[in-house]
Request: fold
Amino acid sequence: MVSIVKEGEFMNVFQTERLTLRVLEAIDTRALERIWGDEDVMGLCTGATPHEKFPKIIEYYTRCQEEKGLSVYAVVEKASGNVIGTAGFNVEETLEKVELIYHFARSFWGKGFASEAARACVEIAKATNAVKCVFASAAPANKGSLKILEKIGFECKGLKWFDDTSQEEPYYELIMK
Reply:
């Protein structure tokens, strides 16, 4: 179950049993180095991102939250207070169809955090009442991520080519009810 905390006009903080998902902040740059800056984490995606790009990415996702009400969030482990991953949505023109993404620092793989965060993101999408479909994909070699998508109710629609990763990937959708 996800509890949603409203701050002002927008939903900005989401909590699960072990995690808090919140809007990314400038102070998260160091933590993002262990996530988006780590080739082991991002190697099956688009590759590691240079740390000097993190401030612009944080700014973009903050603006996305303010303008569209959804974003990619910092995933904070409640027990330690540390940012251990990111999860949320890439939003294009409208909220009707959004892309679910999640990335976690390597030391937090295999502990159920990605499943918990991804499941929370689905609840966040439902709470908007605007999202009709959430889609996701993962590299064929990323068996753990593919398993998470199936575990939380996504349906594989087949293979699809993605220009950003220059590969064909299993493509999943979850229709909001």
Q: What stands out?
A: The mean pLDDT is 91. Helices lie at 29-33, 39-42, 54-68, 113-128, 143-151. Strands lie at 3-7, 10-15, 19-23, 72-77, 83-91, 97-104, 133-137, 155-162, 167-175. The radius of gyration is 15 Å.
